[in-house]
Amino acid sequence: MHHIKASIILVEDDLDLREAMVESLAIYGIAATPVASGREFYQVFDERRHAAAIIDLGLPDLDGNELIGYLRQNTQVKIIVVSARTAMADRVRGYASGADLYLTKPVQMEELAAAVLSIASRRQKASETECWHLDRISMKLHGPDGRHVLLWPREFRLMALLVATGGSEVRRKAVLTAVYDSADDAKSRALDVLISRLRSRCLDAVRIPLPLVTIPGVGFRFPVPLTAN
Questions:
Q1: In whole angstroms, how far apart are CA 228 and each of 41, 84, 147, 163, 203?
Q2: Which of 3, 61, 155, 189 is deepest in the core (most CB within 10 A)?
Q3: Could you tell me the domains of the chain?
């Protein structure tokens, strides 16, 4: 039994290759959650547990670049592409979508494992210092280094709900009810605008992306420590 040094999610539709990669990574102390499609990925992905995502681009239900784009826009997870697409145009597109590393098949498992362990180590050090704080009196949201953004009332309601859930997944309907006292379609569109605006204002004021994860068809999660007074 190997000591687990890192946990990742592996998206690969070839069953034999997927199983071989899981077994090989385990030798290096890496626990891989294997999935065969984009749909499965969205069902089981958990940013709190998965330090990195290894993604094959040729998936049966979508192009792997879509997953890369989703992860880059909504999470801090590192992304490693392992693909049979060797053309420079494909590599460039992968990096443009947000990949941190692009490896081509057949991949050397020693190199892949080394990359995952390096990523996991850096993530652990970052997570030890990354903490956000909500000041209920001043309605300010403070980032890890003390910079803050002054929240508007509905933004404050959103962040207060996220504090109360302690990093757990929050259903979209619950967010709508907390922010707007309503869950109709018009308010749902307004929520998307509110969150987009908050992300932009936060980036300007706090200088780092707001770690608010959108889970398609489900809701939201704030996967890093969030405290309040």
A1: 32, 47, 15, 7, 20
A2: 155
A3: 6-127 (3.40.50.2300), 132-228 (1.10.10.10)
